[in-house]
């Protein structure tokens, strides 16, 4: 009977299950029987004895049946086990028999019920009725390329006819074969839509009609795309494969490149990872990249790489030309694997603010020998000024020099470029112009070469060789007509000859016949020519001549009349814009095309946030289709959009704005729940928990439905009819010991989603363990880069005792090595985890513990990445400025329409609590404390539902609460906050200003000043005012005297707020204020006349000159300025110029002698002002330090110089004075000035001399110059060869000095020139000196003079030498000289003697010639001169020669040298040496030529400057 009732599909299934079970069970029992051995010998003996005792004595066992003891034991054991196995089989068969009977009875009941319903329907069908939908159409959301079937059930009598409509248009299956399929079976009507695409999104309706009426059912079908293919389908951009490439590789795409955003000039990489099976390094899969459906090829700007499981496309130096939908297509074993995503490229920052973006898609068309037509696409203008035109630039290939082609901006996106060089290659670029400036240039076009290929082909013809003068061109017409220009085109002559050809163009007003040549300066080679200078409203005709070296052709037939047209050629505005939800960061737009396309290039889409006035571009390159996905939007924000159409003339008017739309995901059914877990079992029921779907479908999940089945019945049965709102369910009416499987479905507004994967088998067996069950519902909050909060729910099964705590384990994703995070169990159901690695992914589990031990671990959590959401904000604690309420606030970085802010305290939901109030405004939620106190302290957290984990927490501490309570009290009991309390300041006229400043004042503020308990009002002597803008209230006292001592108070009332501020001005504080006020009064009086705006101060120049300076004011031309020192006036060579506003007194070569009190006096008829400056004490030290700073910085390295007295080290600098803090050191020991070590200096240098040096003086020497802050050090190493050379030079100079000291010389007495009358006596007498006594020789005209009666030569006492000439005659005129010398040297002195006759005029005395002289003048230095002889006054003894010190320049420091001259003054003790003295008897040398002497600078140290 069962075989007849059970359907074939059930019969086969059940019998198979039961047969398999019986077979395996029996096999297992037999195997146990055959393999089992006896357990022990003693047990076998006992069983044998029992068998013998129970046997009947009358029965004798036959011999063939007799068994040994072992055989008997084995037989008994097997028989026992077989009996048990048979009992189990019988029990199972009995259970199956009962179950089969129940199923048969159920089927019989169903059959009877169906038969009764059929009879009832037959009765109802006889009653006439209008159509009625028993099952209406249901909305569907499907993926692209998948079918969707709309079903409905209609009843009516007679049976209705059903027609299908799409957006009110009848659905015709024959119109698009294979697209639609309409069926009607048993009253169920269906419409099947095959391979849905985006345009199938519409409202579908089924209309049922019979003779009694009409019924309609409607439903919406929304076609969406998967993440990897949705956009290409929505936008209609499908890659066009030119060829299918077979592949034997299996490829699965893993990480796919997302929608990307770039900026002009930058670079970007699109990367897709994949798994390739088999992975052969040398045989990678074939991959192709597409942009907007067009195949890309590698170039300088496009790099493609494939290998290592990665496909990469790198775009360098981005331009808006690169914007578009990029598709990666990989050929696989099963066909292709593909992924698409959009790349947006925004404008780079303009060089001029407000300038437009760069044009794009620059291309060259109609290429000829010297003519190219350049076209481009206009940029989008959102907030910029409209574009007024474009500049076109060209550049020869291989060059970086760009040349502008048009002088005035062209207004259309085309421009004819002529005048190119034949055979040259060019690039072109375009720049847009608006009122703010010029845009950045576009990307340059591809290279084009100015050649006419058709012309080259024609020249190969044989007939061309016989042609000389070409024929006329034909078909002259306008190929481009715009407001700015007209492009003429014609056909070249045929035949034309092989000689180079050019064209001449003429124009005339239509109908006049007055032809005029228009390309006089251009030799035109191309059959194209742009004409720019045509007048508006006039019609023109054109004709063309062909010209070559042989002559000109006839004129062509004139063109038709041509007239420039207006540029009103933009498309009309697009139609209605409809925005629909797409994803959490994008919106899908559709719009109606313009009614007048006018060669449409595409569309620009703009958007703005609702409430904002600023529009932003959604795309940066014209998009060709009338649907677009706008990416990069803020989740939860509301936007409106508009569209503009684009063509060669520019942008159309904007379309109407779309309706506001919030950025939310498209409404779909939720995904499947997962991770079904058993929480508890009592033997008759199982408590389940599961995790919510990963995708809620854009709507809140409203219910869960649980299904089950057991091992006997594989059909899923509903557990709950009503939806569950919690993710925990207890399933009852279960059979203990049976195994069950469960699945869960989630439902939202769109419908019921897919069921979850079946759970693992769960045995209905009561839990009796003492430890607790698993925790469940693990979730995460406040995920940051290095920390997170994990939360869970307590176990449903607690075990033998209450749960006392929890342990949390953590492991990295993919690892099973869990680490326990807390050493001690936590009692609450959350834990803060810190120390995470940023970007790493972790999994967690939780174990509960009670008094009996640690329970089962929970299921693993979902992997969580330690990384905060972009734009994550933290909770802010504050006080409301108006109400004074204390609050916590969070602004969510992401939100959707269904999102809710769930606040918790210590991670327990707050719920309805009178102490707290939650409010939400936009993206911000605020938790307000109604009456905050210590009970409100704790950790507060908030979670934003239906987001990717937006959450934050804040710990409210007692200190923070007290601070906010103080602020709250201040707000609720307001005071006028003050920036500055009551203060005073002394003004320039001695007035005293009392003031305070409030943070904010209203125009209705009132206030008053109280002084010593008496209110002061504005009047004589007091001025009271306030400024609302700055918040300042002030009172000015004109005459501040001793009577004003006391307490000052300012009281303020501003609305409800009050405050006051006081100032106590008594005692020393008042005396200081009064003194300052009196001083300012005096200053004011002083400044009425000439006065010092800056009193005397000192400065030091780079040359170390000290300047006393001051600044003066209120002066006039008559104002006098005088300098004084110690009351003694200082008169300068140049009087001070007071009109310049500054005066200065230079003090050169500053030293201690310049100390004193200096005074400057400024006076005129209006008054006098005085400034004094005391240079002494600290001021003197400051000046010396300032000089030392400059001098030390300019100090040269130490220079070695030898002298007859010793070795000298010198340091040159801008200025030196002995008052400077200068220290000389030898081997780091300070040197004191002594006879051995002498220290001194001049204005240009400091020196230290080692007298009579010895080996002890070898070593390292240094000089330190200190300016009080910094020390300047210069060093010299006097040792080794440097010392040896210096010592030898010292000995040489010492010997030379001795010789110079003792050589023979003329001390004085001789004149230079003598004039004498004849017959007079001449006596030349001088004093000589030398050691030993020198020899004296006289010469006349270089001949030695001997003693005669006329000429007498004497040398008395080795000291006085004389030459006496008695009765001189003209023959005695001449050049006389005396040579004084000893063994150390000598000296020549020359005298010129001139003799004149009596009565003659005294001649002009000239050196070396005889002159007449007045006899009365006899020099006193010539005691033996005869009266009447008057020589020219003799030379006085030469004073010590002082050679100027050649100070080295600042930029050049003399190098240390033993032979370098010492730039010191020549000492007085040694005269300057001259040239060598000639040997005796030689011709008389020039006057004052001395004997050989040692070089300069052998003198003693230079004495200090006087």
UniProtKB/TrEMBL annotation:
It comes from the Eukaryota. GO terms for molecular function: structural molecule activity. It is found in: Cytoplasm. The keyword Calcium does not apply. Residues 1430-1447, 1473-1486 have a biased composition (Pro residues). Residues 45-58, 1413-1429, 1448-1472 have a biased composition (Low complexity). Residues 131-222, 239-327, 1090-1176, 1311-1394 form the Ig-like domain. Keywords: Cytoplasm, Immunoglobulin domain, Muscle protein, Repeat, Thick filament. Residues 358-453, 472-568, 573-666, 669-771, 774-871 form the Fibronectin type-III domain. The keyword Signal does not apply. Residues 30-61, 1402-1506 are annotated as: Disordered. GO terms for cellular component: cytoplasm; myosin filament. Pfam families: fn3 (PF00041), I-set (PF07679), ig (PF00047). This is M-protein, striated muscle isoform X2. It comes from Lates calcarifer. The gene is myom2a.
């Amino acid at each position: 009977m069962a075989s007849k009732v059970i359907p074939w599909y059930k019969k086969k299934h059940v019998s198979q299950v039961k047969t398999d079970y019986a077979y395996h069970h029996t096999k297992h029992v037999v195997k146990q029987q055959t393999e089992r051995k006896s357990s022990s010998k003693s047990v076998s003996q006992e069983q044998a004895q029992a068998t013998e005792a129970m046997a009947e004595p009358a029965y004798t066992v036959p011999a063939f049946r007799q068994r040994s003891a072992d055989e008997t034991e084995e037989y008994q054991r097997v028989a026992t086990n077989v009996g048990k196995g048979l009992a189990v089989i019988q029990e199972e068969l009995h259970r199956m028999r009962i179950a089969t009977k129940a199923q048969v009875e159920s089927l019989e009941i169903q059959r009877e019920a169906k038969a009764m319903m059929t009879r009832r329907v037959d009765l109802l069908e006889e009653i006439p009725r209008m159509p009625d939908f028993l099952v209406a159409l249901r909305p569907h959301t499907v993926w692209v390329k998948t079918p969707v079937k709309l079903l409905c059930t209609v009843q009516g009598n007679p049976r209705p006819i059903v027609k299908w409509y799409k957006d009110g248009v009848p659905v015709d299956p024959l119109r698009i074969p294979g697209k639609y399929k309409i069926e009607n079976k048993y009253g169920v009507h269906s419409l099947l839509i095959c391979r849905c695409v985006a345009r199938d999104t519409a409202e579908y309706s089924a209309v049922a009609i019979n003779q009694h009426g009409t019924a309609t059912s409607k439903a919406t079908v929304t076609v969406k795309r998967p993440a990897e293919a949705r956009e290409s389908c929505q936008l209609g951009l499908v890659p066009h494969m030119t060829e299918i490439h077979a592949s034997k590789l299996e490829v699965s795409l893993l990480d796919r490149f997302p929608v990307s955003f770039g900026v002009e000039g930058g670079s970007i990489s699109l990367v897709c990872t994949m798994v390739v099976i088999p992975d052969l390094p040398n045989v990678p899969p074939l991959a192709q990249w597409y942009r907007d459906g067009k195949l890309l090829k590698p170039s300088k700007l496009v790099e493609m790489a494939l290998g290592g499981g990665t496909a990469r496309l790198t775009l360098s130096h981005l331009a808006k030309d690169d914007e578009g939908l990029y598709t990666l297509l990989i050929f696989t074993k099963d066909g292709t694997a593909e992924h698409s995503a959009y790349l947006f490229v925004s404008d780079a920052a303009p060089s001029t603010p407000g300038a437009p973006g760069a044009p794009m898609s620059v291309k060259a068309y109609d290429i000829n020998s010297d003519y190219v037509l350049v076209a481009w696409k206009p940029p989008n203008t959102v907030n910029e000024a409209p574009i007024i035109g474009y500049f076109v630039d060209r550049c020869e290939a291989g060059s970086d020099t760009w040349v502008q082609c048009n002088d005035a901006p062209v207004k259309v996106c085309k421009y004819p470029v002529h005048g190119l060089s034949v055979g040259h290659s060019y690039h072109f670029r375009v720049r847009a112009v608006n009122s703010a400036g010029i845009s950045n240039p576009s990307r340059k076009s591809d290279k084009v070469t100015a050649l006419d290929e058709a012309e080259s082909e024609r020249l190969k013809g044989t007939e061309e060789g016989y042609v000389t003068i070409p024929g006329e061109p034909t078909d002259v017409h306008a190929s481009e007509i715009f407001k700015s220009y007209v492009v003429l085109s014609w056909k070249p002559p045929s035949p034309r000859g092989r000689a180079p050809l050019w064209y001449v163009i003429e124009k005339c007003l239509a109908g006049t016949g007055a032809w005029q040549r228009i390309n006089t300066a251009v030799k035109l080679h191309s059959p194209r020519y742009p004409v720019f200078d045509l007048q508006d409203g006039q019609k023109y005709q054109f004709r063309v001549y062909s010209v070559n070296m042989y002559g000109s052709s006839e004129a062509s037939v004139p063109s038709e009349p041509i007239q420039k047209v207006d540029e009103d050629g933009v498309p009309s505005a697009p139609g209605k814009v409809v925005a629909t939800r797409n994803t959490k960061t994008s919106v899908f737009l559709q719009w109606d095309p313009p009614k007048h396309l006018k060669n449409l290039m595409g569309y620009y889409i703009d958007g703005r946030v609702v409430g904002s006035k600023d529009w932003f571009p959604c795309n940066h390159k014209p998009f060709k289709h009338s649907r677009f996905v706008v990416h990069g939007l803020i989740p939860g924000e509301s936007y409106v959009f508009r569209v503009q159409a684009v063509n060669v003339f520019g942008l159309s008017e904007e379309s109407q704005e779309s309706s506001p739309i919030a950025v939310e995901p498209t409404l779909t059914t939720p995904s499947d729940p997962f991770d079904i877990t058993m929480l508890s079992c009592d033997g008759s029921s199982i408590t389940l928990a599961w995790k919510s779907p990963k995708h809620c479908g854009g709507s809140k999940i409203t219910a869960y439905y649980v299904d089950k089945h057991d091992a006997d019945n594989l059909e899923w049965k509903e557990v709950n009819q009503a939806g569950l709102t919690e993710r925990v369910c207890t399933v009852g009416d279960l059979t203990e010991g049976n195994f069950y499987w469960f699945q869960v479905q989630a439902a939202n507004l769109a419908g019921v989603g897919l069921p979850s994967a079946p759970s693992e088998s769960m045995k209905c067996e009561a839990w009796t363990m003492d430890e607790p069950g698993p925790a469940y519902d693990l979730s995460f909050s406040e995920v940051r880069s290095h920390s997170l909060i994990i939360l869970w729910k307590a176990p449903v099964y607690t075990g033998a005792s209450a749960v006392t705590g929890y342990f949390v384990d953590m492991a990295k994703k993919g690892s099973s090595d869990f680490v326990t995070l807390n050493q001690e169990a936590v009692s609450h159901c959350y834990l803060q985890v810190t120390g995470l690695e940023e970007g790493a992914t972790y999994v967690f589990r939780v174990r509960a513990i009670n008094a009996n031990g640690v329970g089962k671990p929970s299921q693993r959590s979902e992997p969580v990445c330690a990384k905060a959401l972009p734009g994550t904000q933290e909770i802010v604690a504050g006080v409301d400025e108006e109400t004074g309420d204390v609050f916590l606030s969070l602004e969510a970085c992401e939100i959707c329409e269904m999102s809710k802010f769930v606040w918790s305290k210590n991670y327990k939901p707050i719920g309805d609590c009178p102490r707290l109030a939650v409010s939400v405004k936009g993206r911000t939620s605020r938790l307000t404390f109604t009456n905050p106190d210590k009970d409100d302290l704790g950790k507060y957290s908030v979670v934003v539902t239906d987001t990717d984990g937006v959450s934050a927490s804040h710990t409210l501490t007692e200190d923070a609460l007290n601070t906010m309570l103080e602020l709250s009290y201040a707000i609720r009991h307001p005071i006028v906050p003050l920036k500055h309390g009551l203060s005073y300041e002394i003004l320039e006229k001695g007035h005293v200003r009392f003031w305070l400043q409030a943070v904010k004042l209203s125009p209705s503020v009132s206030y008053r000043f109280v002084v010593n308990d008496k209110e002061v009002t504005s009047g004589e002597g007091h001025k009271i005012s306030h400024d609302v803008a700055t918040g300042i209230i002030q009172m000015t006292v004109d005459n501040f005297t001793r009577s004003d001592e006391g307490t000052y108070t300012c009281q303020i009332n501003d609305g409800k707020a009050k405050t006051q501020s006081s100032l106590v001005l008594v005692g020393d504080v008042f005396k200081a204020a009064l003194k300052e006020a009196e001083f300012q009064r005096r200053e004011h009086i002083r400044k009425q006349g000439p006065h010092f705006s800056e009193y005397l101060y000192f400065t030091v120049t780079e040359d170390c000159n000290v300047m006393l300076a001051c600044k003066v004011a209120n002066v006039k031309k008559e104002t006098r300025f005088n300098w004084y020192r110690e009351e003694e006036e200082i008169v300068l060579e140049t009087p001070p110029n007071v009109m310049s506003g500054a005066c200065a007194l230079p003090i050169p070569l500053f030293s201690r002698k310049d100390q004193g009190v200096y005074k400057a006096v400024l006076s005129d008829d209006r008054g006098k002002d005085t400034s004094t400056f005391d240079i002494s004490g600290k001021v003197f030290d400051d000046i010396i330090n300032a000089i030392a700073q400059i001098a030390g910085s300019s100090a040269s390295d130490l220079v070695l110089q030898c002298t007859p007295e010793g070795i000298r080290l010198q340091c040159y600098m801008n200025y030196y004075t002995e008052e400077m803090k200068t220290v000389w050191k030898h081997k780091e020991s300070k040197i004191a000035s002594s006879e051995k070590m002498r220290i001194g200096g001049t204005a240009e240098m400091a020196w230290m001399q080692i007298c009579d040096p010895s080996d002890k003086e070898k070593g390292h020497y240094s000089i330190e110059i200190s300016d009080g802050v910094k020390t300047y050090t210069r060093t010299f190493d006097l040792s080794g060869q440097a010392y040896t050379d210096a010592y030898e030079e010292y000995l040489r100079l010492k010997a030379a000095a001795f010789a110079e000291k003792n050589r023979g010389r003329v001390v004085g007495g001789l004149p230079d020139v003598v004039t004498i009358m004849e017959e007079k006596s001449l006596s030349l007498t001088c004093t000589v000196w030398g050691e030993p006594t020198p020899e004296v020789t006289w010469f006349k005209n270089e001949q030695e003079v001997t003693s005669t009666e006329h000429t007498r030569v004497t040398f008395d006492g080795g000291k006085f030498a004389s030459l006496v000439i008695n009765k001189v005659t003209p023959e005695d005129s001449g050049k006389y000289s005396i040579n004084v010398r000893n063994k150390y040297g000598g000296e020549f002195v020359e005298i010129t003697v001139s003799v004149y006759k009596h009565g003659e005029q005294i001649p002009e005395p000239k050196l070396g010639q005889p002159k007449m002289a007045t006899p009365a003048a006899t020099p006193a230095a010539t005691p033996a001169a005869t009266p009447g002889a008057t020589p020219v006054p003799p030379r006085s003894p030469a004073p010590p020669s002082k050679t100027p010190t050649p100070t080295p320049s600042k930029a050049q420091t003399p190098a240390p040298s033993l032979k370098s001259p010492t730039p010191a003054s020549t000492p007085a003790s040694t005269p300057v040496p001259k040239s060598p003295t000639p040997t005796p008897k030689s011709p008389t040398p020039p006057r004052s030529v001395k004997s050989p002497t040692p070089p300069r600078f052998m003198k003693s140290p230079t004495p200090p400057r006087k």
